[in-house]
UniProtKB/TrEMBL annotation:
It comes from the Bacteria. SUPFAM superfamilies: PK beta-barrel domain-like. GO terms for molecular function: catalytic activity; molybdenum ion binding; pyridoxal phosphate binding. InterPro entries: MoCF_Sase_C, MOCOS_middle, Pyrv_Knase-like_insert_dom_sf. Residues 145-282 form the MOSC domain. This is MOSC domain-containing protein. Residues 63-84 are annotated as: Disordered. Gene3D superfamilies: PK beta-barrel domain-like. It comes from Eiseniibacteriota bacterium.
Length: 283
């Protein structure tokens, strides 16, 4: 059954930075080749970090000058810094300039070939409850997000050899964004805030992608399995390009959707996807 059309296709070469819109991509079992292919390593904390902890990362954008190969490690990506300067992820200048921007010593870590380990990341383990709530964008008195599915063992398996927060594909519908915009018209519900790989146009009302959890979707010639709704964190409130910081985004999500917007999915059958492809529910 057709449930929508692939409206936009996105890849994010460096974790937590702005990404690049694609016309087409060959989905592998690792997701879109090169997606989150690089990450920022915080030398003082000995782990990969994100814009949840270092918000200026969201002011940077990244793209690949050459197309990545899903079987190989990540090729160099080009970062555009907030002042417009462009640096390559494999250069000493990138490390220096990012360190100046973030106010701490950092380096850039690439993913290796399929099957290799990724650099360790900074986790919330051992953090105070107040710090964890701040990272999730939750105010005192608000209910916490349901993260029970992300047990330490589950996260270890999901994150083996990649820099994803959880699953390799994130999808959101324009319908969800329109629904949220009607509920909170004072906020700008631009799709860039949600950093999805697949933006789908759907004619249904409400939050249609949540009804696809546990089902398989055919997108182009690829097959993906929808695993769960995507719990949101403070990242959706951060400024990016012309989008202002807006904490009302999180207040609306906590109140209306229990922190959830969009879905996580895994690739179960490799194939090509392109903007304009139909999206079909198979089971």
């Amino acid at each position: 059954m057709r449930v929508g059309t692939l409206s936009q296709l996105w890849r994010y070469p460096v974790k937590s930075m702005g990404g690049e819109r694609l016309d087409t991509a060959a989905l592998s079992l690792r997701g879109i080749p090169g997606d989150r292919g690089w990450a920022v390593f915080d030398e003082s904390r000995s782990g990969v970090t994100t814009a949840k902890r270092l918000p200026p990362l969201r002011a940077c954008r990244a793209r690949y000058p050459s197309e990545p190969d899903s079987r190989l490690g990540s090729p160099p990506a080009e970062i555009t810094l907030p002042d417009g300067t462009m640096v390559s992820t494999d250069s000493a200048e990138a490390t220096l300039r990012l360190g100046e921007l973030l106010g701490r010593a950092v380096s850039l870590c690439p993913l290796g070939p399929a099957g290799s380990e990724a650099a360790p990341r900074i986790t919330a383990a051992g953090e105070s409850p107040d710090t964890i709530r701040a990272l999730m964008g939750i105010l005192p008195g608000e209910p916490e997000a349901d993260l029970s599915a992300f047990t330490p063992e589950r996260l270890r398996l999901l994150r083996h050899g990649n820099f994803f927060d959880a699953y390799s594909i994130h999808l959101i519908t324009r319908t969800t964004l329109r629904t949220l915009s009607r509920l909170a018209p004072e906020s700008d519900w631009d799709e860039r805030r949600f950093r999805a790989n697949l933006l789908v146009e759907s004619d249904d009302d409400g939050y249609p992608e949540l009804a696809w959890v546990g089902r398989r979707l055919r997108v182009g010639t690829a097959l993906i399995e929808v695993v769960m709704g995507c719990p949101r964190c403070v990242m959706v409130t951060l400024p990016e390009d012309d989008l202002p910081q807006d904490h009302r985004i999180m207040r609306t999500l906590v109140r209306e959707t229990r922190h959830t917007a969009g879905i996580y999915a895994s690739v179960v059958e490799e194939g090509g996807v392109r903007e304009g492809d139909p999206v079909e529910v198979l089971d």
